[in-house]
Each structure stands twice: as C-alpha cells, then as structure tokens.
Amino acid sequence: RQLHSTQFLTSAQLYKQCPPDEGREVAFAGRSNAGKSSALNRLCSQKTLARTSKTPGRTQLLNFFDVAEDRRLVDLPGYGYAKVGAQTRQQWQKELDGYLSQRQSLAGLILLMDVRHPLKDFDHMLLDWGAKAEMPLHVLLTKADKLSYGAAKTTLMNVRKALKDHPGPLSLQLFSSTSGLGLEEAWDLIGQWLEL
Ligand code: GTP
Ligand code: MG
C-alpha cells in the first residue's frame, strides 16, 4: 500500500513552523481521544508512527508525516485536551485557524469522531469551516468495534441524515483502528486526495 512507507517529518508548534506549503496534504482533525493517532498508525501500518512525535505533557500543534515526495499527512491537535491550560488551548486554536485558512496544499480534511459521541461542538465548528472554505471533508466514525455492526450502521445513517444539507463535498464511513473496518475505503479516498 502507498501509505506504508510514511515517515515522521516534523512537528510545528506555530503555523509559521510548518514545512513548505508545496504539493498536497491531508489533515486529520477531531476531538482529543477521537482516535486520530491510532487511525494514522493503522492506515500506515505502523504501530508507533504518530506516537513518536508526542512529547508527554507538551504535545505539539501540528505533526507532519511524509507519504511520498510532496505528499503529506498531518495530525492536527485534538480539541479539549485536558492537560493544557486555557491560554495554551487558545494559542492552539489560533494556530489551527491559521493553518486551516492559509494552507494551500491542504487537499482535504478527515474529521474523526468517536461513533459513540458524534457531532459535538468542535465537530460542527470544523464542518462549518469546511463548508465555508469549500474544503472536501471525509468523516471517519471511529471505534466502530465498540458497537454492534447494526448499531454502528444506524449511527452512520443518523449522522448522514444530520449532515445532508452540508453544502460542500462530504463523505462518511465507519472506521475501526482495532478491527480494520473501513481501511480500504479510507485508503482509496486519501489516495485520491493526495493524487498518489
Ligand atoms: P489526542 O492525541 O489526545 O487528540 O487523541 P487521539 O485522537 O490521537 O486518540 P488516540 O489515537 O490516542 O486514541 C485514544 C484512545 O482510543 C486510545 O486508548 C486508543 O487505544 C483508543 N482507540 C483508538 N482507536 C480505536 C478503535 O478503533 N477501537 C478501539 N476499541 N479503541 C480505539
Ligand atoms: Mg493523538
């Protein structure tokens, strides 16, 4: 698979520290604990890829991974991270806004939501931003293994219904980093966005 040789590139605390804005990249966003790092690792078939960039107690803002030349995945900060103060969180919000509004190479945004807790405030904020920016969005309803397949399907249908008036390109799927459910579908989409 094309994502299997992905390597950690760099972490940026500030928007201006991001690598050159060239080529194409796909960013992973979602509330803290939604399963972003786990999804990245599973998609790239590497157990510790996303963890290597984590400094305990001082998580960086944006983590960049090289998929191929000028093709990147980006782990965005989770909202609601409990271990940092309000001031740090505000700073992150500012940098995240900067990233989302300025990044030319951003080809699409993957929004991860725990299938048991979809469509919280942060998710709506990103969905609204995506609509305004005309940014393609793809929702992964993660940890689908935590529900029965029927219950997970029902949630997928309900979230799809709730988002049916979303004006921009938007797709949704179930995903589990544990069971591998939805891997193919996510791979295909990321491959398209990155033009791999
Ligand atoms: P932050 O970096 O804090 O924003 O969190 P994150 O979104 O990167 O979440 P992370 O991948 O660290 O996962 C959070 C917890 O959920 C961990 O304990 C994972 O093991 C667990 N988890 C993630 N994905 C899955 C999944 O598909 N199934 C199950 N059962 N657990 C999962
Ligand atoms: Mg993480």
Structural features:
single chain; alpha/beta; Rossmann fold; 5 helices; 23% strand; binds guanosine-5'-triphosphate
Explain this structure:
It is built from five helices and seven strands. The chain has a single domain, classed as P-loop containing nucleotide triphosphate hydrolases (Rossmann fold, 3-Layer(aba) Sandwich). Strands 1-3-4-2-5-6-7 form a seven-stranded mixed β-sheet, with helices on both faces. Helix content is 33%, strand content 23%. The protein is an alpha/beta fold and 196 residues long. It starts with 6 loop residues before the first strand and ends with a helix. Bound molecules: guanosine-5'-triphosphate and magnesium ion. The site of guanosine-5'-triphosphate has 17 residues, from helix 1. Its cofactor is Mg(2+). Pfam families: MMR_HSR1. Necessary for normal cell division and for the maintenance of normal septation. Belongs to the TRAFAC class TrmE-Era-EngA-EngB-Septin-like GTPase superfamily. EngB GTPase family.
- Largest sheet, described in full? 7 strands, mixed
**Which cofactor or ligand species appear?**
guanosine-5'-triphosphate, magnesium ion
**Count of distinct structural domains:** 1
Strand content: 15-25%
Q: Could you tell me the CATH topology label.
A: Rossmann fold
Query: What would CATH call the architecture?
Result: 3-Layer(aba) Sandwich
Instruction: Describe the global form.
Output: globular
Query: CA-to-CA gap between the ends?
Result: 11 Å
Spans of at least 5 consecutive residues with low confidence? 52-58
Strand order of the largest sheet: 1-3-4-2-5-6-7
CATH homologous superfamily descriptor? P-loop containing nucleotide triphosphate hydrolases
- Using only CA atoms, what is the Rg? 16 Å
CATH class: Alpha Beta
Question: What's the mean pLDDT score?
Answer: 89
